[in-house]
Structure formats: structure tokens, C-alpha cells
Design a protein that fits this description.
The complex is a heterodimer of chains A (184) and B (96).
Chain A (H helix, E strand, L loop, with lengths): L1 H5 L7 H22 L1 E2 L7 E2 L5 H26 L6 H11 L4 H6 L14 H30 L3 H31 L1
Antiparallel strand pairs in A: 1-2
Helix pairs in contact in A: 2-3, 2-4, 3-4, 3-7, 4-6
Chain B lengths: L16 E6 L6 E7 L8 H12 L4 H8 L3 H25 L1
Helix pairs in contact in B: 2-3
The chains are: A mainly alpha (184), B alpha+beta (96).
């Protein structure tokens, strides 16, 4: 059970993971559109105003695509194994599954309010839950990276940390340009 | 009970060699110092993987189906065995 929750890539990868991952990303995208939840970066979740559906699609693709590009480059640099793009893309798509829960949580009106003393307890609980789902996603991304590139030890840990920071930075720049283009 | 062939010295962790071989039919014993073949230096699981891999004509896809694992997981097992083979070959060449 623990393996299926945190490292399903031992059993599922390639086209199978890509198909399932993209389907779950599409569901997350539709739910996020209606619950006004935004994924404005590789590991970002925010609640706010409603955006056009196309922007929600771009948010999902931006978060996934730049992780794939950066992780693929890191794998080619660090690993001696033969890396397949389909494994990186598929496992990273499936890694975004936990984000469906914050998208559902976006229907809770409290999470859209400005935090104050009145709603502090509920807001804190909601934020803690979001952090838990984000940690789950990051754990899945780490395992997707190590299984797809056959990296272990400090190489895997440092490779992942640098890659995720780089992917986050790139995705943030791109999404801000997209917001600027579509919303302003 | 299936006996495991020890190939690492429990005292100093060096590679073990064979000192004697016996014919199970006539009980003739051959003594000397023989190095273990490369395959015998792997664990039972690794030996089973190698044999299955050869039987499946070297297809990682078939192996993945057989072991109920993903393609990269099987490729990673194979890559780790390749590294082990290379290290063993190096240590054999160094000891010559």
C-alpha cells in the first residue's frame, strides 16, 4: 500500500502512466476551473478569482511540462542509464495526482477568504492539508525521478533539489507571462 | 532447504575460492584452488533475473510483464547487474 501511494512507478511507467496521469490532470483542471483553484508553478496551489478555462489548462501543462524538461536534462547529465522521455513524462504526469484534492478543497469558501482571527483555525487546518498534499506530490516526483533515471544516494537527492528549484523558477516566469498575456 | 553458495568471506569480506569439488556419483574429490565463475558471485535473485532475461531473448518488455514491474524498474535492475559485472571483472583482472 505504501509503495502504491508513494512509489507506484515501480509498477506503472511509460505510456500507461502518461495516459493515466494526463487523464487525472485533465480532471484536476476541470475541478480547479470550477473551484477557482490555481496551480501557478510546479509545486504551487492558490485559491483566488476565476480564470478562463484555457488559462487553467495552461497552468496544468506549464507545471508538468517544465518539470519534464528540467528532470530530463538532469537525468541525461547525471545518469549512466538509458533514459526514456516517455518514462519521465509519464511518471511526472502521474505524480501530479495529489493535486486533485486541493482542487476539490477549492470549493470550501473559507479557503478563498482573507485570513483573519475569526477564521484562523479553519484556515490553518486547510493550509496544513494543502501542505500535506503538496509534500505527497513532491515525494511522488522524487520517486518518479529516481525510477526513471536510475539515480541513487546523494546524486539523486541533489539532482532532484536543484531540478525542482529550476523547474519552479522557469514555470513561475512562464506562468506570469501567460497571466500577463491572457488576463491583462 | 535450499543452501546458498557463499562467495564472500565472513571473516574479511574478500571473495571466496573453491578448494574441493566432489563427484556425487563416485565420491571422487578434486582438490585445488579454483575461482568462482562470474555468475556464481551473484545472489540467487540476481541469478534468476539473468536466467529469465536470457530466456526472454533479452526483452525488457517481456521481463516487465513477467515480473509485474514497470519498464524502468526492470531496466534499473539490469543496469545494477551490469555495474556489478563490470566491478567483478575489474577485481578478477586485478587479482590476475
Amino acid at each position: 500500500m505504501k509503495k502504491w501511494l508513494f512509489n507506484p512507478f515501480i509498477y506503472v511507467a511509460g505510456w500507461q502512466a502518461l495516459g493515466l496521469g494526463l487523464l487525472l490532470m485533465a480532471i484536476t483542471c476541470v475541478v480547479a476551473f470550477f473551484s477557482k483553484t490555481h496551480f501557478d508553478g510546479v509545486i504551487d496551489v492558490h485559491f483566488g478569482a476565476g480564470f478562463p478555462f484555457l488559462v487553467c489548462v495552461f497552468e496544468q501543462l506549464n507545471a508538468w511540462l517544465f518539470t519534464v524538461i528540467v528532470f530530463l536534462a538532469a537525468s541525461f547529465i547525471l545518469s549512466k542509464s538509458r533514459i526514456r522521455l516517455i518514462d519521465i513524462g509519464g511518471t511526472l504526469a502521474l505524480s501530479r495526482t495529489p493535486m486533485i484534492f486541493p482542487a476539490i478543497a477549492g470549493f470550501i469558501p473559507l479557503l478563498h477568504q482573507v485570513p483573519s482571527i475569526k477564521n484562523a483555525a479553519g484556515f490553518l487546518l486547510g493550509s496544513l492539508l494543502l501542505i500535506l498534499f503538496t509534500i505527497w506530490m513532491v515525494a511522488l516526483m522524487y520517486n518518479a525521478f529516481t525510477v526513471s533515471s536510475n539515480l541513487k544516494g546523494s546524486k539523486a537527492i541533489w539532482g532532484f533539489i536543484v531540478s525542482i528549484i529550476l523547474a519552479e523558477a522557469i514555470s513561475k516566469i512562464v506562468i506570469s507571462q501567460l497571466y500577463h498575456h491572457f488576463l491583462f | 532447504m535450499q543452501k546458498k553458495l557463499p562467495h564472500i568471506c565472513p571473516s574479511c569480506s574478500s571473495e571466496l575460492n573453491v578448494q574441493s569439488l566432489i563427484c556425487s556419483n563416485c565420491e571422487t574429490t578434486v582438490s585445488g584452488e579454483f575461482g568462482l565463475p562470474l555468475l556464481a558471485r551473484f545472489t540467487i535473485e540476481e541469478q534468476t533475473f539473468i536466467i529469465d532475461f536470457v530466456k526472454s531473448s533479452g526483452s525488457l518488455k517481456v521481463m516487465a510483464q513477467k515480473l509485474n514491474l514497470s519498464y524502468p524498474s526492470v531496466r534499473n535492475i539490469l543496469d545494477d547487474i551490469i555495474i556489478k559485472i563490470e566491478n567483478n571483472e575489474k577485481s578478477i583482472n586485478n587479482s590476475k
